Every structure is written in C-alpha cells, then in structure tokens.
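Example 3.2
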Amino acid sequence: MSQDFDVLIVGGGLVGAACALALGQGGLQVGLLESAPPPALPQDDSWDSRIYAVTPGNVAWLRGMGAWDTLEVARIAPIHRMEVWGDDGQSRLEFDAYESGAVELGVIAESRLMLDGLWRQLQACSQVKLLCPARPASLAIETAAAVLTLEDGRVLHTKLLVGADGAQSWVRRQAGIEPKFVHDYGQWGVVANFATEQPHGNIARQWFSRNGILAWLPLPDNRISIVWSTPEPHARELLALEAQVLCEAVAEAGGNALGELQLLTPAAGFPLKLQYNQSLIAPRLALVGDAAHRVHPLAGQGVNLGFRDAAALVETILAGRRHDPGDWLLLRRYERSRKADILSMQGVTDGLQRLFNNDLPGLGLLRNSGLAAVNRSGWLKKRLMTQAMI
C-alpha cells in the first residue's frame, strides 16, 4: 500500500507535532509518523518531571493553532521575574517582565500537557494523517519525492520529509548529515519537582556554583521544578539520595530561599551535550528540534529553539505555496533563516557554561563583575530580555 503526502514528519514529540499541526492547518496534506501515541494523562494530581519554560513568542504560536488554550490554567505558571546569581554569592542579574513592558517573561508548562493539547488538535485536523504506531525501515531520495518504507511494508511518498525524531535522529543518519562537532559536557541534568514552604512569587531563580548550575522554575501554588546541571559524579550522588536528604541538598544549594522543600516527583537525570550539525537540510529533507541541534539547558531554550525551527519551516513552506514543499531553494531559505538563532543560542549557553565551570586565576572576579555590570546596564539587559522572549 502506498500513500502520498506534501510533507511527512517523523517524530510526534512537541516539535514534530506542532510542525504537523501548523502545516495541516495551512492546507497541506501532512503525515505524522510516531512509534507510540502519547500516554494518557494521569487521573491524579501528579506532576510531570519534564517541565519547559516556553517563551511568550512560542506561547502565541501554539495559541494560534488552538493547542495552548487546551492546557488547564491551574497547571501552568507565568514567570514574572528571573534572578541569576554568580558563584561569589553576591553578584546577580535580574530580569523583570514589568521592565520589558511584558505580561510575563515566559510560562512554565508540563511536557505531557502540551503534547496532549497538540495531539488533540491533530486528531481534529482533517489534513493530518496520524501514522501511529509505525516505525521507519528505509529511506530513498528520488528526484520528485522522498520514499519512506515502514517496518510493516507500507510505502510513503512525500515531497518533503521532516526529521523531528530527537537527538539520535534516524532521519538525520539516513540522510548522511553528520554533526560538525559534538561536545560532551561531562554533566548531567538532574530534574525533580518540589513543594516549597514559602511562596516563590513566580520568580525563576538560577545559581552558578562549583557544583554546576541550579535552576528553580515556578510551578502553580507553592511548587517548583528544578534542573541541576552538574558533573556526572555529583549527579549520580544526587540521584542516589533518599528523598529528605535530596530536599535538604537542593534547598541548601539555593540558599534556602523558599524554606524547606518536599519532594513531589522522583529525581531523574540525563547527559548534557552540545551538538552542531553541518547542515539542517538535504535533498527533499529538513531537520527540526533536537534532530537539528542540541544546547546546554542552562537557559531553558532547547524546546523553544525547536518550536522556532518548526515555525520557520512552516512559514517558509506556506509563503512558497506555489512551489514544491521540497524545493531546494525553499529548504535553503529555511536553513539560512535558522542558522543565526541556533549559533547565537549555542554560543551563549556554551560560553556561560565554560565561564562558570573554570577555575583559571582571576576568572571568578571577571565573570561575577561582568554579571553585575550587565545588571546595571539597562540597555543591554533589555536587549537580552527581548531576545529571550521570542
């Protein structure tokens, strides 16, 4: 059996699902291939340990597709303020939504809730065919189409194949797109959710220290989600701690800013890497999200970069509607539109990670004084806020 699509997307996570929905709502015939549907939302009030800080720009994009307003208001939390502390315990950088003339700097939402909202909209979109469960077996690129054969024998023809299948992308490997460089930070990101003794005030807090970078993100009511980017040995120690001891360690690392903590979700960890690909495109093929790049999570921009990839690809294809979606000039236009944003974010996150994980003499004074100097510079601080909110 053979099926034809304008665009076929491999990977039904947040970025792939959003890309499929936007293209389908734009009138294209879209296929979305995923090995398993999202799990059903739990019936209790448990919290997902995978939390994202979504920028106002991406919130607006998701809302425009009808995928954001399906989220339960009681499960999301706005960020009104952000405080970043240097490793001297005194230098700090503060961002305030009021100063930027915005309602919020970002919104904290659970991964599974956003994915559920996107899939609900996908199921209601007649232009999108959900191929799930299904797995790809082989790929052939022809002059007029990409031909994807599935493990069950089905053959899919598409004018454009989009790889949204994560950091270990099958599509990227099949296309022969090699990473230009990969840097293993030797760190893990440790994530968990906590109840707090004191209100967080919708403030996102981040500390740089010798044990890495600790971020506290506000959840609804007196709850926070943390991401502790720390050397692997320390990460393994944290993951092995009993709940109460972990609470005490996280509270102490954050200067007990919110009083005592109570663990809500078991801690989990994942390795941190930087990856830059030599290209985002190949004939009849484009990459988005983690398939296209990986960044350090210290700025919480991984999924936001992925959403901007998807939005840029959709905009490019729909603007060139009279053309073949897989036209090489359109793909080149997409790639050029994304390079600066990706390189900028990778440069900033990698630079900060290296700066605050370095014991060279005099560097500590330089980085902390620099943090304080940026905080005093109204123009530069506003520029950084504007860029981070896109």
